[in-house]
Amino acid sequence: MVHANNLDVVFAPDTTTPEEAEKPFTMDGELGIIVTTGNTDASTFKGRINAHQELSQWSNDYTIEGFYKQDEVTVDDETETQTTAQKIFLSGQGSYKLENPKHRLFAFGSYEDDRFSGFNHQATIAAGWAQELWKTDVSSFTYSVGPGYAMAERDTGESVNGMIVRGSLDYRWKISDTSTFRQTFSTEVGNENTKSKSESSVSAQINGSLALKVSLILNHNSDVADDIEELDTQTSVTLVYNFF
């Protein structure tokens, strides 16, 4: 298992403040490429697209992520370049607003193909209750929780399917006029495996469209093979560009 702990400089918008969240449609793009040569040859690619749609009755979010890394490794006293990380992740959530628009019913779906996680693929569908606990000019907090079904296949070919309970939260705090802290967390608890993801980030505005972001991402699977690590971490320093 490759333990992904990378320091990337990328273009990635993620500085939306609570008062900006009501735009009818926003789309954020993230792209990072790092190439090192000399004593060590390595290359890293990281990309993400986030889209948010705010309608009178629906609040929808979509995400596409990709991560790819090649490193120079030594095998049997010979040096060669190998792929050491390769991941694709897609997710979508639609939240239907009830009479009180802070109270919502959600439907969620995701698909992940991570070559070095011990799984050929992992997919999830879930539905349940979502709520915006508060939203001010300074901070906001939303959560969702509900039952679902997970479908996965280990790299041995074994199927791992079963009922889960999925929970998520999203907290944002505007530290100052130019800096924002954000914490997101999701977990999918099942009998076979519990899959969790946490992302903590701080962004500082450089100008109207550009910001600097520092983030820490933790990915955890509770049930993996003996030669696979349960926890992957990714640390990044990014340049953030807001398209619209």
Can you walk through the features of this model?
With 244 residues, the chain is mainly beta. Helix content is 0%, strand content 70%. The chain has strands at residues 25-36, 42-54, 58-75, 78-97, 103-114, 119-135, 139-154, 159-174, 179-190, 194-205, 210-221, 231-241. The protein has a 12-stranded antiparallel beta sheet with strand order 1-2-3-4-5-6-7-8-9-10-11-12, with no helix packed on it. A hairpin with a 5-residue loop joins β1 and β2. The radius of gyration is 19 Å and the shape is globular. 25% of the residues are buried. Mean pLDDT is 84; it is low at 9-21.
* Content-based structural category: mainly beta
Overall shape: it is globular
Count of individual beta strands: 12
H/E element string? EEEEEEEEEEEE
- Placed side by side, the strands forming the largest sheet appear as 1-2-3-4-5-6-7-8-9-10-11-12
Describe this protein with a few key phrases.
single chain, 244 residues, mainly beta, twelve-stranded antiparallel sheet, 0% helix, globular
Quick structural overview:
With 244 residues, the protein is mainly beta. It has strands spanning 25-36, 42-54, 58-75, 78-97, 103-114, 119-135, 139-154, 159-174, 179-190, 194-205, 210-221, 231-241. The protein starts with 24 loop residues before the first strand and ends with a strand.
Task: Furnish the topology, listing elements before pairings.
Blueprint: E1 25-36, E2 42-54, E3 58-75, E4 78-97, E5 103-114, E6 119-135, E7 139-154, E8 159-174, E9 179-190, E10 194-205, E11 210-221, E12 231-241
Antiparallel strand pairs: 1-2, 2-3, 3-4, 4-5, 5-6, 6-7, 7-8, 8-9, 9-10, 10-11, 11-12
